[in-house]
Specification:
It holds the Pfam family Exo_endo_phos. This is Discoidin domain-containing protein. Keywords: Signal. It is a single chain. The chain has nine helices and 32 strands. By secondary structure, the protein is mainly β. Strands 23, 24, 26, 27, 28, 29, 30 and 32 form an eight-stranded antiparallel beta sheet that branches. Helix 7 packs parallel to helix 8.
Length: 597
């Protein structure tokens, strides 16, 4: 039985910031009330803090703490933590500008009735790990399987299995002990993969009790949804589904353009209403078919947990709310996406955003490690969970190869194993069981956050005082003069790699020798990031003939400007040698030199 003690409010001064705690205890011992303190590295907004909560340690019991940091109805941090010694520390969070309330709840559980931990992983494999059949050596697939084994999920939701399903199953089980082996189920049936392929797969270490039959109507088929009933070690069960929904109405691209246009004061090509309408082309109808028809037809009135993972090709309404309008890369854009809200309305938790509620600090990018991360946080892959006994412990999005794979030739053209990042979530299903058996995953804070850096110091040299030449360019549309015209909507672009392979150079004549402070290289601001320069060398010259190296550069696959300090160096010419760009090409929207004021 759970006993609730009335809330206890405690005020803590943080330089004008009011932090209060509403604390409840639920345990056999009604007198057990947790206390808490905030441990911060500063005394105001912007400080990084953790919640340190303390309860009563009891023999043969595990204490479940839930900490929540909120401003009104806006949640900024949330943790579910388990301990035997009565004390926990939350993950770090950043204090927002508004006053916050810290809520701490405590539930005491018998040590053999904590629950069953599960690690869930959702991933679109980009045509079975072959990069749309561009990578045909098999090495990427082998590394992909090695990475899957490193994550070691209990349930793996796969999109775009496309001929690699059995190879993945064999690779997952190679060398595994009998009690630790995976079973694999091809969910997309022959009726639906005859044209495109065996899209959806499900892999699991749990007992597969039943594979659900093909569901098809006007909006979805087994190409979009499939699943199974899985048995838990304690005799209970869960329902698990892999899913994929269409990319018609490109949520990422339209949002990217809107954020860029807002940020740089450019005319909008689409209104917010027109962007949101993209969800209604197909995705909303597909979501209703999945949530209101297919899943109920499989599980009936069974209230066991439902777990889903896959590629929705959709942005989250939780990320693009008013709360995060001014987060890096959002450009003031607020979009109440109707498709992902359907999942919330049907009781599903977006596990990544539940575990990492601050969308500015934890953008959770999954699109696209290969094509380029663009100007916005493109989060289009999800793990969902529903059920009264489900607890979300941690979630992360992976977009980089394992360190041991980064020495491979694959790392430069293909920095991750797919064009999608994966989502990894740890949950606990309350009930019989001893609880956690490994450390929950956590997301790295700030990954890809700082999308628009401040302008470099110095005087920006006007475009009218500059000239530009290049070793190669696309006639008519890629002229190097486009990189010095002061317009973010025009680009320098090299000729096709088959005509002019890298390295390429683009040189800016400053008109005279100047004392320089910095130079900004602005990648093109398009969703098509082909040509975005990733590696090269900045050089300078006084005469335009003899160039000397200043600094090697290695830049991310993003549209953020890349600034190079020149520290008062004197020169008339600045040259960028592009040694490697996406697709073997080189492109820039602007080169902006600054001289000492």
């Amino acid at each position: 039985m759970r006993f609730l003690v009335p809330p206890l409010a405690v005020a803590v001064a943080l330089t004008g910031l009011l932090a209060a705690t509403n604390t409840t205890a639920a345990a056999a011992d009604r007198g057990s009330k947790p206390s808490y303190r905030l441990d911060c590295d500063g005394d105001g907004p912007g400080s990084t803090c953790t919640v340190v909560a303390t309860g009563k340690a009891r023999p043969h019991r595990v204490e479940e703490f839930v900490t929540t940091v909120r401003s009104g109805d806006q949640v900024w941090a949330r943790d579910t933590l388990y301990t035997r010694d009565g004390q926990v520390r939350s993950r770090p969070f950043v204090l927002p500008e508004k006053d916050v309330t810290v809520d701490v709840s405590l539930t005491s559980l018998p040590e053999n009735h904590v629950g069953t931990p599960l690690r869930l992983m959702a991933w679109n494999l980009f045509v079975g790990g072959t990069y749309n059949r561009q990578e045909n050596t098999g090495e990427n697939l082998a590394q992909m399987i090695d990475y899957m084994n490193e994550v070691n999920p209990d349930i793996l939701f796969v999109v775009e299995g496309y001929g690699s399903g059995q190879k993945i199953l064999d690779g997952l089980n190679a060398g595994r002990a009998e009690g630790d082996r995976f079973a694999g189920v091809q969910l997309t049936t022959p009726e639906d993969y005859s044209v495109n392929g065996d899209n959806l797969w499900l892999y699991t270490k749990l007992d597969i009790q039943k594979v659900y039959p093909r569901y098809a109507d006007a909006d979805i088929s087994s190409f979009n949804l499939g699943g199974a009933r899985l048995g838990l070690p304690n005799g209970k069960h869960v329902h698990a589904f892999s899913l994929w929904t269409w990319h018609d109405g490109w949520a990422y691209g339209d949002t990217h353009d809107a954020a860029v246009q807002n940020t740089h004061g450019l005319p909008r090509t689409k209104t917010n209403e027109q962007i949101l309408e993209g969800d209604n082309l197909r995705r909303v109808a597909m979501g209703k078919a999945i949530l209101e028809k297919a899943i109920p037809s499989f599980i009936g009135d069974d209230d066991a947990p439902v777990l889903m993972g896959g590629d929705l090709n959709a942005q989250s309404h939780l990320d693009w709310s008013e709360q995060f309008a001014n987060a890096p890369g959002h450009g003031g854009v607020v979009l109440p996406w109707p498709y992902t809200k359907l999942y919330t309305d049907h009781g599903f938790m977006d596990t990544f955003r539940y575990a990492n509620p601050d969308a500015g600090r934890y953008p959770g990018r999954t699109w696209s490690p290969y094509h380029g991360m663009g100007a916005i946080p493109g989060r289009i892959d999800y793990v969902f969970a529903r059920g009264k006994d489900v607890r979300i412990l941690g979630s992360r999005a992976d977009i980089d190869r394992l360190p041991r794979h980064r020495q491979s030739w694959l790392n430069q053209p293909y920095p991750f194993y797919s064009d999608h990042g994966s989502v990894v979530t740890d949950i606990l299903i309350r009930g019989k069981g001893t609880g956690l058996d490994r450390e929950p995953v956590t997301e790295e804070p700030g990954k890809g956050r700082h999308i628009w850096p401040a302008e470099p110091a110095g005087r920006r040299i006007p475009p009218a005082e500059l000239k530009a030449t290049a070793s190669t360019f696309k006639p008519g549309i890629g002229d190097p003069r486009n990189a010095i015209d002061g317009k973010l909507t025009t680009d320098f672009h090299s000729d096709y790699p088959i005509v002019s392979p890298q390295p390429h150079t683009i040189t800016v004549d400053l008109g005279r020798v100047r004392e320089l402070s910095a130079v900004r290289f602005q990648p093109k601001l398009r969703t098509n990031m082909n040509g975005t320069i990733l590696k090269g060398m900045v050089q300078v010259s006084d005469d335009g003939i003899t160039f000397r190296d200043v600094t090697p550069v290695e830049w991310p696959r993003m549209t953020a400007p890349n600034d190079v300090s020149l520290k008062g160096l004197s020169a008339r010419y600045i040259r960028l040698r592009s040694d490697y760009g996406i697709g073997g090409a080189s492109a820039l929207a602007e080169i902006i030199p600054y001289e000492k004021a």
